[in-house]
Amino acid sequence: MTETKPISIPEGRQAWEAALEGGKLRDSEFTSLSGSTLEVVYGPEDAPGDPAKDLGWPGQFPFTRGVHPSMYRGRLWTMRQFAGFGTARETNERFKFLLDHGQTGLSVAFDFPTLMGRDGDDEMCRGEVGQVGVAISSLADMEQLFDGIPMNEVSTSMTINGPAPILLAFYIACAERRGLDPAVLQGTVQNDILKEYQAQHAWLVPPEPALRMITDVMEYCSEHVPKWNTISISGYHIREAGSTAAQELAFTLANGLEYVRRGIERGMDVDSFAPRLSFFFDSHLDFFEEIAKFRAARRIWARKMREEFGAKDPRSWKLRFHTQTAGVSLTAQQPENNIVRTAYEAMAAVLGGTQSLHTNSMDETLSLPTEKAVKIALRTQQIIAEETEVVHVADPLGGSYYVEALTDKMERDAQAYFDEIERRGGVVPSIDSGYFQKEIHDSALSYQRAVENGSKKVVGVNCYSEGEESLEIELHRIRPEVEAEAFKGLASLRADRNATRATAALDEIRTACNSKANLLQAFITAAHADCTLGEISQVLRDEFGDYIEPKIL
Amino acid sequence: MSERRIRVLVAKPGLDGHDRGAKTVASVLRDHGMEVVYTGLHKTPAMIAEIAMQEDVDVVGLSILSGAHMELFPRVRKELVERGLDHVLMVGGGIIPGDDMQVLEEDGFAKLFGPGTNTDSIAEYIQTEISKRWAAEEAQA
Lengths: 553, 141
Description:
The complex is a heterodimer of chains A (553) and B (141).
Chain A: H1 9-22, H2 51-55, E1 78-79, E2 82-83, H3 88-100, E3 106-109, H4 112-115, H5 139-145, E4 156-159, H6 164-177, E5 187-189, H7 194-200, H8 207-224, E6 228-229, E7 231-234, H9 236-240, H10 245-265, H11 270-273, E8 277-283, H12 287-308, H13 314-317, E9 321-325, H14 337-351, E10 356-358, H15 371-386, H16 401-423, H17 427-432, H18 435-452, H19 482-496, H20 499-513, H21 519-528, H22 533-544
Chain B: E1 7-11, H1 20-31, E2 35-38, H2 45-55, E3 59-64, H3 69-82, E4 89-94, H4 98-106, E5 111-113, H5 119-140
Helix pairs in contact in B: 1-5, 2-3
C-alpha cells in the first residue's frame, strides 16, 4: 500500500492559483451584498486569529460562538412575530391567534400616531390611525390590548421609541391595575432613540432630553422592573434604511456604547443596568455576511464592556439579540418568492445564534400581512427548529475560514467607524451634522444603482421577471371605522376621568421635566390618572421643544 | 439660451418616517438634471402645497409607506388646486395596493409607482410628460 504524501498548504495554494489563471469566470462582480470584494476561496491565512482569544467556546468570553453554553439544546429561540393593526381589540385577537399557534412571545406594532406620541383624534393623524400598527392612546387601550393574556407569563416586546417611556408606563400601570407586582413583568421596550434620528425617524423631542428619559427608564427598571429589557438597541432600521452590514453593526454598537456612557454618567454601576440592554438586528440575504455580523457583534460588545467600561458581571458582556428578516429584501413582484428569501434569512439568524426571531410574511410589500401569510412565516421558523436538525450544534460555522475571515473584517470595519464617530465628537454631534443619515443614504443609493445596472440581481425584478403581473394574493385592509372608534374612545375617556387628578398628574410631569425627578415614575402616575399619550407628549414637547432634522439632501 | 430645467418637489406627507425611497428618487431625479426640492419628513398637505407654490415646481412627487395614502394624497391634491396649481404633474409612490392606484389615477394623479420600480423609468416618465406639457404651452403661445 502506498501512501500519497499531501502537498503543503502554501505549495497547494500556488498550484491552485496557477490553475485558476486560465479558467473562465462568469460575468459577475463577485461581491458581498454590502459590496465588499470576495475571494474565490478562503484558507487558514485568511483567518489568522487566536481561537483562545477571539473565539472561546459557547457561553464563554468573548461569546463569538454564542451566549449560552448549550445554545439551542437548552432552549430554542423565542418565535416572536411582530403584530398590530387597527384597534386594541383586533390586535388582542391576533395575539391570541398567534399564541394558539405556538408563538412563544408577543411583539406589539404601534401605528404612526402612537409612534409619534399623538392621540388618534389629533388633527395630524387623519388617515393614519391603526394603519401600520395598533393605536394605543391610554391605559384603557393597553388594558384592552392585553385582555385575557397573562402578563406575568408571556414576555412582551414593544416597538416604540420617542414616547417609549410613556407606553412602558401604560404597561406597568396595566399590570398594577391587575394586582401584579411589576417585578414579574418580562419583555422589552425598544426605547432606542438614537437610531430614530439616524434612520427610522419617529422621534418626540431632541436627543438630549430623549437620552435623559431613556436613562430614567434604565434607572427605574433596574430597581422596580428588574426582568425588563430597557433598551433594544436596533440596527434593523438602520439596515432597512439602506446601510451596509458593517454600518448596521457599527452604528448600532456605537449607539449602545453611548447609552452605557449615559448610565455611567448618571452615577449608576455599569453592572446594574448593562445586563438588561438587548439588541435587534436585521438578517439580510447575504447568508455568510450576516452570520459574521452576528458573531462580530457579540465579540465587540463583550470586549468593549469588559475592557473599556470595566463591567464585571458576565451578563453585562453578553450581547443578546432579536432578529427580524429583511423587509427590504422582499419584492412586490412574484410575492410567493418572499417565503424562500425569508427562510434563508431566518436560517442565517439561527446559525448566527439569535435569541428571538421575527420572520416576515410574503405579502408585506403590499399591505399588512394576512393571517395565512403570517402563519407560513411562523411555520418557516418551526421547520428550521424541528426539521432541519441545525439546532443541535452551537455555532456550526465556527472555524470556517470564510466565516472567521468575515467576522474579523466586520470587527475591523466597525472599529474604523467607531474611530470616525469619535473624531466627529461622538454619536449626538454626528446625528446633528447628518453624518449617519448621509452614510446610510449613500449606501442605499449605491445599492439601488447596482440593482438598476444589473450588477446586483433581484429575481422577479431585474431578472426572471414576468412583466406586468396581476396580483392574486389577498390583501389585509384596515377597517375604515377604526378612526371613528378611536375618536369615540378618547372622548369618553376624557369625559369619564377625574379631571383634577389628570391635570395634577400632567403638572407633575411638567415639574419633573425641569428637575432631576424620574420621569417614568411621573408617567406611571399619569397613566393611572387616565392621561392620554398625546397629552403627556404635549407636555414634553412644550418643555423640551421639537426636533428639527438636519438637511442632508 | 439656457435649457429650461424641470423643477420637482419630493414630499413626505403625514407621520410616516420611511424616507429611503423618497430620498433615492430625489437623488436620481437630480442626476437626470432636474432641480429637486425635498420637503423632509412629517409635512401636512397644506405645508406641501405652500412649498410647491413658493418653489414654483412643475412636478410634485409624494411618498407614503404608512397606508395613509388614500387620505393624504387627495388632500395634497386639493390643497394644490386651491392654490391654483392644478397644472402641476402629480405622481406618487410607496406601499400602495393596485386598486388604490387606480382610484388615485382617476382622481388627478398622473401616475403611481410601486415597490421595485426602476428609478430611471420614473425620471423618463416625468421628462416625457413635462415635455408634452411644455410643447402644448408653446403651441398655445
